[in-house]
Amino acid sequence: MNLKEKRTKEYQDMVKASEPGTNILKNCIFAFLTGGIICDIGQAFLNIYSTYLPKDETQTLTSITMIFLGAFLTGIGVYDKIGRFAGAGSIVPITGFANSIVSPAVEYKKEGFVFGVGSKMFLIAGPVLVYGISTSIIIGLIYYFVKIFPAI
């Protein structure tokens, strides 16, 4: 082992020793509770909407409401605080997707609407959208051809 490798290993050992420990159980509980509360809020909207609208409309309206709330809370800086507390519990629900679109847009708004907000809005969510849409098209085509040619 040469001097450079030895110093690199010493440095890595020093960094590992100074890292704060993580409390995995506490983080899992916070993520579970926060994700559950977000889902409960979504369920409450679904229940409220279902008293006035047909089922297919209530599901769409609930998704729209939750996306709006996630985007709104990100815009006013509240969702980031929830994310620091909850971790994955705030990322997994649909509100986390709204946060991943609005967060870069808010961060880069000082660069203008075209080169800031417009170009950076899908920085995080862009790959998710591209692969999600591409996969849904492929699955849709497979479904279409299986339905047309069921005997093959």
From TrEMBL:
Transport keyword on record: no
Sequence intervals crossing the membrane: 28-49, 61-78, 85-102, 122-146
UniProt keyword Metal-binding, yes or no: no
Name of the protein described by the UniProt record: Stage V sporulation protein AC
Keyword list, A-Z: Membrane, Transmembrane, Transmembrane helix
Species annotation: Caldicellulosiruptor morganii
PANTHER family listed in its UniProt record: STAGE V SPORULATION PROTEIN AC, STAGE V SPORULATION PROTEIN AC-RELATED
